[in-house]
Amino acid sequence: MPPMDQPVPPLRARLRANYLRDESGAVAELLAVARLEPDAARRVQERARSLVENVRTRQKAVTGMQSFLREYDLSSAEGVLLMCVAEALLRIPDAATADKLIRDKLSQGDWEKHVGRNNSLLVNAGTWGMMLTGKLVSLDAAEAGNAGAWFGRLAARAGEPVVRVALRQGMKLMAEQFVMGRTIDDALARSIDGDNKAYRHSYDMLGEAAFTAADAERYFVAYEKAIDAIAAHAASLGPGLRRGDSAVFAKPGISIKLSALHPRYEYAQRDRVRSELIPRVQSLVERARAGDIGVTLDAEEADRLDLSLEIFESIFTSPALQGWEGFGLAVQAYQKRAPFVVDWLADLARKQRRRIMARLVKGAYWDSEVKRAQMQGLANYPVYTRKANTDVSYLACAAKMIAAKDAFYGQFATHNAHTVATILERAGKDQPFEFQRLHGMGEDLYEQVVAAGHACRVYAPVGSHEDLLPYLVRRLLENGANTSFVNRIADPAIPVESVIADPVATVAAQTSVSNPKIPLPAALYGDRVNSSGFAFADEAVSAPIVAQIQALAAKNDFGQVPDADANAARSALDRASRARIPSADERAAMLDRAADLIEDDRVGLMAVLAREAGKTLPDGLGEVREAADFCRYYAMLARKHFAAPEELTGPTGESNRLQLAGRGPFVCISPWNFPLAIFVGQVAAAFAAGNPVIAKPAEQTPLVAARAVRLLHEAGVPEDALVLAPGRGEIVGAALVADLRTAGVAFTGSTATARAINRALAAREGPIVPFIAETGGLNAMFVDSSALAEQVVADVIASAFNSAGQRCSALRILCLQEEIAPRVIELLKGATAELKLGDPARLDTDVGPVIDAEALAMLEAHATKMDREAKLICKAAMPKDAGALFFAPRAYEIASLDAIDREVFGPILHVVRFHSSDLVKTVDAINAKGYGLTMGIHSRIEDTIESVRARACAGNLYVNRNMIGATVGVQPFGGEGLSGTGPKAGGPHYLFRFATERTVTVNTAAAGGNASLIASSE
Ligand SMILES: Cc1cc2nc3c(=O)[nH]c(=O)nc-3n(C[C@H](O)[C@H](O)[C@H](O)COP(=O)(O)OP(=O)(O)OC[C@H]3O[C@@H](n4cnc5c(N)ncnc54)[C@H](O)[C@@H]3O)c2cc1C
């Protein structure tokens, strides 16, 4: 197997080249493969109709989960609320928070309208606890909006514990619908019970991605045990073979999630994945082979596809598996690469002269794939944007697999009757294949299919309720979505014809192939182009870029920028004062051009960012994108507000116009931590508002600044209208600020320097000028016990340690509710241990160096103090070849918030616990520190989120996500109190602060009277 960075064989190269394929071209090709002859298409319709009609007849009598899901689907507010309860309730350790969650969600829904609407036991018999609430307490309208009041009344009658227990019971019932058993032994026993006997099974050990080495080890052991148990169980079953089957096809098997077996199963860490994950999976597969039970690798996110294929190939071709057909993988049809994956697998199977068990699925992460592509500014989506396109892709991939009999044992996983009918039409009579469905779904459909003699396997999740939650959410989304087949088949209001519509015909009839409601990531904002990014996992695009950056970074030949002195600063002001400022439209066009040039120079900029500022590759890409976004956003605002005067309403006979104009030379003083994005953002704003600019970059990062200025000049910004004045703050900055010609100052940096500038400006004679300061923060995140610990830790690591903690927005104080603290701290330790420090130009580096020796000494001094006064929770490993400027990210537990009262700019996190009743007090204590930049809250309880929001003195509050990486125009950035003056950078009000306002009033009736009034008076 060639390692990834070696030349790749053509089929694999083709696969990679189609990561973000144009949807129209892709679908046109798929249609040709998926289309059936008219007679065959008619037969498919008939079969699908009969399947659907039978399902509907049965479902009339059916109670239970399907009818429950129909009643509470995600189009109803109550369905969404239930999903929220289901996702969180079972994992909340303390009664107080569980009750709060219940109060929060139950008070919002209109539960009474569901009573009596449906015969289902589940819906009506009080199983859900809300029914219990409905019976015990009738709400009046005033109380309905007041959770506290009605819950208090309910609790007074029934007691909170009763409600809580009833609801937990209800949630467990729902969970059980989708789980085969709590343990593998339970599940195996259930698999031969009653109707289950008619099916094969593939067991899935529940649990999501491993965060820590310990998690991965725990999952590994669970898989080993499960394999042994399944193998023993399989030996006790009859052969169950069909013609053409390998013995292993008929047996139960296991499904494996690669993300559960390694804490860093990601493209950037592929060397580690190769050396650590492949041997683990190999050992599990060999164990399965010894017991002759099948193993299938689940398919996960699109950016893991290529890596999963490498792992599959390595193991499939290993000598230990020769001659055995029990190893397979899932292929997601919603990915544009799917048909190429099928071709590549067929080739691999043929070369190895044995079939691959290939499970064809549509895909379970569609919504998150779309969101990620938009956030990353990808050129296109890795998945289709219309459901029918995914269906056509599935049918085309199925057709390819069925045609490649020698290469595949097809495992068609679907609950869609039309899809099932098409497979039955395509597959030859004697062709071995099986269907697959998820436990708890599609029983009515497959009862008919299995009765007709076709094999079907059930994907059977095994695990505790706590482990089930993320899986459950995916299933509820699938069941609740109104595009989903299981939802549509259950809704009697949807005609059968529409349920069984042939996707090939649907797609052919579409006026646009892609979904117009899901614009391409570049077109997300409508009024301006989104900056373009790329996925590092998109190897065909990223590998050449990364190689070029590394070559440039290795050469480290970015020129030199000599420091200016006070005289040079003054002559910069001379030049700027003489500058001719282009019109607003011209300025906007220049900034749009600058954005394009910045993006074109991505490689050079990322290389110099890595070398001069220690920026990792993802951080560098983020900066390039942000800089381009600033240019386009301010260009958009300049056109909107500065190009033409605003007409104001007034008395007749008069015209009143308000015009915005530049103030004069603006000094922009920027920091080293965002040497490109903040530098360009300030300059672009000041220029967009009509000012000449003198840009004073940080002493540490003049090369990035000089490169950015060159690009802005190349874009047309007159050289006099943007003058670079690099040099020391005390000399160049001070001279610029003191000069009376300076008509305004924009500054980002420390609070102390901001104060010094403010004093200097105040001491000047002459006009009082605007001062826009963005300074530091003592940023906190609050986590209550309804939060998901894994999600919290991922966001904490990103917020506290990305960019070596050298972001103003970075998380400094993590406030954990006591009950969740032990779990979060344990995960934090494990996740910190996985961080890799090193050369920022390497893709596998998570954390680069800190900016300079002074910063390092400050961090070391603070760490020494914390070592004495606080408890060290964890510390990342230092690289062996550590340069002088590395500082290992670490976290300390502090006894109280008194232990910290100033910003420590680097990767040191402080953790403090709070009692559940003290959340608001804790927020107040953070507010009292005087900063007000970013804050975070992780909670599933709206009421809790709202109480933090109402209290928080912070410019940017982030809920259930990380706290860094504000996007221009989306999360305008900037704080209050000690954190800055506002207005927010990248926000709609920013440019106004750089401008002056002039009104012009014209008495239009002065000469000749008010002709227009007379003309329009009747
Ligand atoms: C045995 C088994 C194993 C599975 N293993 C995996 C796995 O390893 N990895 C995985 O990701 N999933 C897996 N799944 C889940 C599977 O992806 C979903 O169950 C499946 O997508 C549902 O398809 P369907 O044919 O039953 O339903 P349908 O309702 O016909 O299709 C629903 C699917 O269409 C797609 N879709 C919805 N809206 C759009 C849109 N606007 N544009 C484009 N596409 C859209 C989504 O993928 C959605 O899941 C597995 C399912 C089964 C049955």
From the structure above, extract its key features:
binds flavin-adenine dinucleotide, 7-stranded mixed β-sheet, 1018 residues, alpha/beta, 40 helices, 8-stranded parallel β-barrel
Structural features, described:
- Mean pLDDT is about 90; it is low at about 120-150.
- This protein has about 1000 residues and is an alpha/beta fold.
- The longest helix is centred in the middle third of the chain and has 25 residues, at about 615-640.
- Helices cover about 50% and strands about 10% of the residues.
- Strand 16, helix 35 (about 790-800) and strand 17 form a beta-alpha-beta unit.
- It binds flavin-adenine dinucleotide.
- Flavin-adenine dinucleotide (FAD) binds near residues 384 and 515.
Main-sheet strand order equals 1-2-3-4-5-6-7-8
Number of helices: 40
Bound molecules: flavin-adenine dinucleotide
Please tell me the overall pLDDT: 91
Strand content: 5-15%
How would a crystallographer describe the biggest sheet? 8 strands, parallel, barrel
Unreliable stretches:
120-148
Number of separate strands: 23
Helix content: 40-55%
What is the SS-derived class?
alpha/beta
Please give the alpha-carbon distance between the first and last residues. Answer: 87 Å
C-alpha Rg (nearest Å): 31 Å
Shape: globular
